[in-house]
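Folded chain entry
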Amino acid sequence: MKLSRLLSTVVLCVSFSALVAQQAGPKGEPGILSREQTAAIMPATVFFRGQSATIQARNSAGVRAADGKLVLAAMVDTSGYSSGIAQTYQAYLITELPLQIGTHKLAPGAYGFGFIEGNRMITMDIGGNRLFEAPTTHDDKISRPTPLQIIAEGSAYRLYLGRSFVAFNLAR
């Protein structure tokens, strides 16, 4: 019985690995990661402003650069935070390489961010300190908006929260 369970587990793991490989291509291939791939990489909880928050794996997205470095984003459960923080801290961003968001360069690291009134994205360090705001764009043409997703647009990317997005580039 134990051997049959072990074999079943091995077969399941191999099957899952093959599925992930089909979706992502060879390891290190640049491009958009699936939700499943991103959720498997993202930590289950993230630290921001003195507390830990659970990520929403179903609302996560990522990008793998040509050198294999990652940009990961996920919605977070902010129920333990004050309403003032929860309004601006909607998602978590982890980047292993610099990003160019509008006119702002974001260094590798972990950040909280949110899309706020006035069509703006606010980006904060993990202490909750505001780093910058960048304009967002409302996209009525997106056919299937989800709470969080990343879509490639040429050599740039769009980070969406619902129908609003901010464009970013992988900086060097």
